[in-house]
Design goal:
Blueprint: E1 35-39, H1 46-60, E2 65-67, H2 80-93, E3 98-101
Parallel strand pairs: 1-2, 1-3
């Protein structure tokens, strides 16, 4: 007896990468005493998630410090090009050793 359910081919929904892969920056071995910047696009519950992340990291890494997302503003929207251009300097100015970039679904 034939299967009454339809059968579909499976395809990969993503196109091949158009840009060559770059190298990643070295990761910190330990976040104790480090400063972590928070970057967010203001699109999904960062105001709820970032405090949870902070508490978890503070429990694990004594002396960790955060530069909260409000310092940098939204990474999405009409000013995103200006922020992207100035972000390296802003991160240095704030003493950031690492960044949490966006949170969401």
């Amino acid at each position: 007896m034939a299967n009454p359910e339809p059968v579909y081919d499976v395809v990969w929904p993503l196109a091949p990468s158009a840009a060559p892969a770059g190298s990643l920056a070295a990761r910190s071995d330990d976040l104790r005493g480090k400063t972590v910047g928070e970057l967010w696009d203001y699109l999904f519950k960062g105001e709820e998630i970032f405090p949870l992340i902070r508490r978890a990291l503070e429990a694990r890494y004594p002396g960790i410090r955060f530069v909260e997302f409000e310092t940098f503003g939204s990474t999405h929207g009409r000013d995103e090009k200006e922020l992207a251009a100035t972000l390296p300097g802003l991160l240095r100015q704030q003493g950031c050793d690492a960044v949490i970039s966006a949170v969401g679904a």
